[in-house]
Amino acid sequence: MKFIVQLIISTLAVLITAYLLPGVQIEGNNFFIALKVAAVLAFLNAIIKPIMIVLTIPITIVTLGFFLLAINAFIILLASRLVDGFHVDGFWWALLFSLILSVVTSILESVKKRDEQ
Predict the structure, then answer these.
(1) What is the C-alpha separation between 44 and 64, in angstroms, rounded?
(2) Which one of 15, 19, 58, 106 is most buried, counting C-beta atoms within 10 A?
């Protein structure tokens, strides 16, 4: 149940973030495409991201951790290639999508926690 709630929060965050950014499109603002994007991002963040982090430790250390932002952008770009109906116009839009998605997700999770109390 917890996973489903988290997936719905991520889906809403994807929809809101795509609405805010002109360089990111979800065809027809479709909830089910956003749900696919959220599920693919969860999978990529669980499987691919840790591998990328380990392989890029030297670059991450030299850049004082800022390369992790690039890894997040690459994960977003990979998701846009995997999910039909989700399009990101380039690396910089993916980076901005990643940052705003984190903020929107945090806001939605704080609202959920407030409602639980």
Answers:
(1) 23
(2) 15
